[in-house]
Design brief:
mainly alpha, two-stranded antiparallel sheet
Length: 94
C-alpha cells in the first residue's frame, strides 16, 4: 500500500486556503487533542484532582501533605519586570 507523504508546510498552505469556520473547527480539534494529551501526561491522584477542581468561593479544602508535612522550599521574592526570583541563601546558616 502506498503512503502519502505530506509536509507540514503543505498542510499549512492548504489550511490557509480554507474558510474561517473550517479553520476554527480545525483549531478546536487540535486544541482538544493537545489538552487531552497534556492531561494524560499529568495524571493526578484523586485527592489532588478534587483539590484543584474545588469551588473557590471560600477557602479551598485542606491539602493532605502526608506524614512529613509541608515541604520546606526556597524563599522567593518578586522583582518587577522579572517575576519571582529565589532569595539568596545565607552561607552561614546550615
Amino acid at each position: 500500500m502506498a503512503t502519502l507523504a505530506v509536509s507540514v508546510e503543505q498542510i499549512l498552505t492548504l489550511i490557509q486556503q480554507l474558510p474561517l469556520d473550517s479553520k476554527q473547527a480545525i483549531f478546536e480539534v487540535l486544541r482538544q487533542d493537545v489538552h487531552d494529551n497534556s492531561l494524560a501526561r499529568t495524571a493526578l491522584d484523586e485527592e489532588s484532582q478534587d483539590w484543584l477542581e474545588a469551588e473557590l468561593v471560600s477557602m479551598p479544602p485542606e491539602y493532605d501533605w502526608g506524614q512529613s508535612g509541608m515541604l520546606e522550599g526556597m524563599p522567593v521574592h518578586y522583582v518587577a519586570g522579572q517575576g519571582l526570583v529565589f532569595a539568596e541563601a545565607d552561607i552561614g546558616k546550615s
